Amino acid sequence: METIVEYGTADGLRWQAATGRPVAALRSAITRIQGYDERTDAPLVRSELPGAQVVLLIETGPPLTLRDADGVGHQHVGGFVAGLGPSATRTEHAGWQQGIQVNLTATSVRSVLGVPLTELSAGAVGLSDLFGSSERLASRVADADDWASRLALVQAWLIDRIAQGPAPDRRIAWAIDTIARSGGSVEIARVQRQVELSRPHFIRMFREHVGVTPKRYARLVRFERIVDAIRNRRSASWAALASDVGCYDQPHLAREIRALAGMTCTELAHVLGGPVATAFAG
Q: Which site from 70, 151, 156, 209 is most exposed, i.e. has the minimal number of CB atoms within 10 Å?
């Protein structure tokens, strides 16, 4: 398969990133598949921002440590699936991590996992808890000859999982797509009326497919827009950004960033490498 492998070094960090193009059978199911190998001179701690896609990690190196809201560390040998969490997640490794990351679309994730997504709403779940012996999959990926072979193996596994899993409900799939295309700004009550489901039934089915309520999903979609706008310098100021993403005003934007990223607007801009507006520092 077509694979682009990049290498880099910076400040005691050495990394490889192998990005593959999803095969035709997976183009509506995944938005990204990438192999990674990262080595550092000292332990590394990151804050992973929340988003509107479920992340599946197949780990072929030492297991990553995930810190919950109470600071307790959790590891999942072989990898894990991270649901649409309420806030940023702290991750740590001792100096090396390696594996394959797959970003699953909200419409496909239940088919891949084969279980209601309500089981992921609290955070990460180990692949072994979902699929049995995840070490076998991770071992097969690790033993493959090169990055292209590893990515192809994972894509074949995903195609098999989708073939075995339940098809998404067409009404919920439409709702997910409508919310995503609106950038999270569509009125949820209108979406619910259009799919002709009662409010409780709509929320229950949506949570089973996505892991969160429609309103929460829309909020995460909007936060992805905020992150994209800062990272790619799409807005000239915090005021413009608030207007662009559908926030009421700058304080509303600041509250959203604080709630979802756990930092101020300025701190998030610094992390993402975007411009910092001196007139509005969060």
A: 70
Q: In this structure, are residues 264 and 270 in contact, taking their beta carbons and an 8 Å threshold? A: no
Q: What is the pLDDT of residues 20-56, one digit of tens each?
A: 999 999 999 999 999 999 999 999 999 899 999 999 9
Q: Are strands 30-40 and 65-67 parallel, antiparallel or unpaired?
A: unpaired
**Angle of CA points 216, 219, 224, to nearest 5°:** 130
- Report the top-level CATH class of 3-164: mainly beta
Question: Do residues 175 and 195 make contact, with C-beta atoms less than 8 angstroms apart?
Answer: yes
Q: How far apart are CA 78 and CA 66, in angstroms?
A: 14
CA–CA gap between residue 64 and residue 267 (Å, rounded): 24
pLDDT digit string, tens, across residues 82-141 = 988 888 899 999 999 999 999 999 999 999 999 888 877 567 899 988 887 666 889 999
Alpha-carbon distance of 227 to 90, in angstroms, equals 18
R_g of the chain computed on alpha carbons: 19
Contact 35, 147 (CB under 8 A): yes
Element (H, E) at 254: helix 250-261
**Quick check: 206 and 213 in contact, CB under 8 A?**
yes
Query: Nearest-CA neighbor of 172 among 117, 231, 219?
Result: 117
Domain made up of 170-272: CATH architecture: Orthogonal Bundle (1.10)
pLDDT reported for residue 281: 40
For 244, counting Cβ atoms within 10 Å of its Cβ (0-12 exposed, 13-18 middle, 19+ buried), the class is middle
Query: What does residue 39 show for φ and ψ, rounded to 5 degrees?
Result: -130, 135
In the chain, ranges of CATH 1.10.10.60 domains: 170-272
